Amino acid sequence: MNSANEYTLRTQLERSNAVRSNIKKLYIYVVLVLIVAVFSVVKLGQVEFFGRGHFLSPDSIINLLRSAVPILTLSGAFTLLMISGYIDLSVGSAMSLSAVVFSWLILNGVSFLPAFLVTLVMGISLGFLNGLLVMKLRITPVIATLVTLNLFKGIALLIVPHGLSAIKGSATKLMPAWINDYARLDVLLGLPWAFYVAILVIVVLVIVQRKTILGKYAAAVGGNRTSAELSGINAVKLVWLLYIIVGFFAALAGMARASYMSLGDPLSGDGMELDCIIAVLLGGTAFSGGEGSVAKTIVGALIIVCLTTGLMTVIPAFWQTMAKGSVLIAAVVLNHLLVREKVKA
Amino acid sequence: METRLERKKMIGGRMSNESFITLFMIGVLVVLFGVSCAIVPRFYLPQNMINLLTNNWYIIMLGIGVTFLLITGNFDMSVGGVIAMTGVLSVWFCQDATASQNALAVGLGLPYGVAIALALLCAMGIGAINAFFIARLKVPSIIITLGTMMIARGVAQIVAQGAQRNTSLPDVFGVLGGLTIPGMSIKLSVLVMAILVVAAFVFEKKTVAGRRTYLIGANSVAARLSGVNVRRHLTSLFIISSLLAGITGILLSSEFKAGGSSRAMGYEFDALVISLLGGVSIAGGFGSVLGMFVGAVILSVVTSAATGLLLSPDWQFTIKGVVTFIAILAQRFALDKRKG
Amino acid sequence: MELTDNVLEIRDLVKDFPSVRAVNRVSFDIKRNTVHCLVGENGAGKSTLIKILTGASARSSGSILLNGEAYTPHSTRDAKQHGISTLFQELNVVDQLTVEENLTLGMEDTTLGFLRKTDKINTMVNVMNSLEPSITPRQLVSTLSVAKKQIVEIAKAVATESDIIIMDEPTAAISESEIKRLFAIIKSLREKNVTVIYISHRLDEIFELGDYVTVMRDGKHIDTRPVSEIKDRSELVKMMIGKTVFEQYTPKEGECKDAILQVRNLSNHKLRDISFEVHEGEIIGFYGLVGAGKTELARAIYGVDPYEGEILFRGKKLPPFPDKVIAAGIALVPEERRSQGLFTILTIRGNVPVMNMRKISHNGFINAGQERKVTLDYIDKLRISTSSTEKEASKLSGGNQQKVVLAKCLFADADLLMLDEPTRGIDVGAKSEIYGIIRQLSKEGKSIMIFSSELPEVVNICDTIYLLYDGRMKATLRNGCDIDSEKILHIVTGGNVTSGDRGE
Fold first, then answer.
1. What's the pLDDT tens digit per position in C325-343?
2. How large is the ipTM?
3. Nearby residues of C250 by Cβ (< 8 Å), 6 or more positions away
């Protein structure tokens, strides 16, 4: 009798786990579709008022995708880091700093490719610094990267001459017009290079997460560091490498933004860490690491971009912060409901 | 039977690590101050010294709550947003309710006392949200408090429509922030800060509730098994932290006779930095309000010396970052050395 | 390489700890491709021996020969590279990965970092399926039961050509049918050229499984024999207990007083229908093996774990919150001293008064003088050896740490003390001091519940002994000169209870 009870209990548990895992698999797409649908309907009534066209019109979609480039570029690598159980709050500042350095180089006559490469190297060193602080000097990840957040931001502000809000052309020097070729020039289907680079990044990172040793080890370290290390994985080097990768893509994202805006704004990356966290949480990655999916983070990132762009045209600008804060809390709640530790069968 | 002397010896013994780190940071402060006096002109003037101690009063007020939470192993990043929110709300609540052309000049027309009380209540509400998610649902504090930071600032931005509210205020509004102690140039706000720091110090060292903070930080499982209601205590701390931020917001808005939605940007980081400079460890169970105060003074010595050396204010972020890392590593090094 | 008959030869192995010699000149051989059981009471030195074999701990002197060559592992990984894998009680699988990914973790075949599907995976999966066909390689490990996770670990060890697999109480947390399956697998390992070192408290398992058995007692090697040469469990039990004369237990004088705690039909995830009473001034022992449900029982009463049933303290229902339970007059010395009992980074003074801050405070303010005084009092009373009240708890020896935890609970002024493994990991001297304290408390009219997996402990000091097995109460014994330790071991290792044992 007892074992029969246990059996029914177990099957019930299994069933509820199965239901939950199905919800977990699908909900994010439902959310995305719902948001797009809501904005399409809401905006239908406002077409004349704003004169910008339908939410689903090709123009709107292209605009939306163009503004999504930075987060699409960055959030994949961010996911890998979170899967390994670590966090980098400095990504926004690393982006700003990259934007500033990139535009400073270009303003000073460096051509595209060298400037591009130098900035990438700088991004790598920012990631290296974070990895050093967290993995080698063992400073709590949140504190270390919170401090580097302000450090990078400070350096970005230092590079921009005092009294100016951004690096751009002046009377003596002109920012070359080609700076926005990378993120604005129509290459294919109305979308620029930066967008296709972002797509490439996503594809590469999805493959890295699913098919390579790096993705697997990240999950192993995030899931059970002891057994990962017993199996011969060097967790310190691995996570350090992930920090470097995040730094690299933060630089790439920063340059996309600089090219898009034709200037290097030292605040342009502000809040990117929160966007990334929301995207990752919506994508169902666990707080404590071990599981997660780059592909789903990308869907989460699209949700944020839709929300931000959609809300921008529907509600006044000063509602934005509130909205984003609420979305973050909602993402936490959703994540809590869906990812909390599975009931032991 | 033991003699009195032996018993006395038992009580003495080595200084605690916490006092050691506080003394260590006081030593660092003295050295930094000496160096600054030597190289920065007019740094040693009494007025400058007073400024060093009092200029950062609002950060120190925040630092109290942030320090306690850090001792329990939690972050509170929402304090800056709460300052902006309570400031704007206190203005809005007591602005004249009669119609005006300007939407930002119309408020609820409540008496000042009621306005303050309501604004503080809203601040505590943010603390309660933090506590709910962190103490009950066990969500990492950093993420939730970053969320409530935006919600609080969001409220400020909505009410102030992204700008600030500063018209049609009753005269009483500016009194609190403008008051100075008779005969001295010290503001009421600074006095409040001083009283709160002393109170927090007494709370931390002398009360049962203060002791519980350390117990939770040292080992929250053992604390629970020893009869500490961990959830309730964390909830109180989060609410207190938000309340302190609320009081700061009220004082600041009164001083400026305005509630601005972008006030106190980044203050949460400064509060965290001074706690870390003061030796609070995120590993939990370690740190003190006194250390935090020392950390605050160190920060103002460093930044003001830097300004005195004609560095542009843009350097402040970089300086803060570098100083914090040096402090964390130096403290760890000093503790390791001490262990032998 | 010519293989010797003995896969492992242990010679004069010694491990000294500051206050105790845990392994005392132990020598024995382990034959190739056998199941070699290691038995002994808690504290007999088994786990220390295993720690030395797995590289988790370094020996003080002596030598180990692995396949005839000197063997000195520096870490668990090092041991693994030498072909010795260990199945710890805390399983080392990554829940979030699939079975296949776990099997190959750390040994993947890759091209430019890309995971390659090679024969290695198939070989490993085949090994695993030859052990347990029902596990599919694409399954997430988190969906497996504890027993199947163990099988995944065993499969990994076998597939990586480990010569020796050490299993530390692998059956402690798995069900009967799973145990059968596991045994079949262990038996089949012999054909795969694997030697198994098997540690268990359940003696029946040794007869079912073992080729050889080594008995240890008080850090010494008692005997190594083929299992077939051992008549029955009672012979084994005798070897384990030896001629240890238990300290004389003196029965309680006078009548039993009122019941202070009544537990009725307590059940939860681990416990099944447990009922008993504790009387004033009584010392009660709960004896059972690891995993029998002792800790869970203490936690349920203390309000930490949920339960069904009724717990009455002084006739009133106990609220399920530790702070309220303490206020009602119950204190617990938890099982894990460092992680559950002690605030290691705080001083002794910071630890002692925490369960009853009211007593050293007035209106919420701590009276520092009183705090120091009570700390000194308890340092004297329990003879905690320290230079100062301001010493960090982490710097005390195990026995003194345990005394600090005990002081903490005594200071709570509880009428009922629950002690979960009160003497685990502390030396003999401190042990008998703690027993003295417990007896003294009982004389003062306090009731005490001891949860222990050490038989001498319960037999020494308890008036009534309850035997637990697999979450159930198996028998109740009044202590006295006729207490039969063999029968007790028989019951708690899963033997049948004869009709005479039950009831009072």
1. 998 999 999 988 888 889 9
2. 0.84
3. none
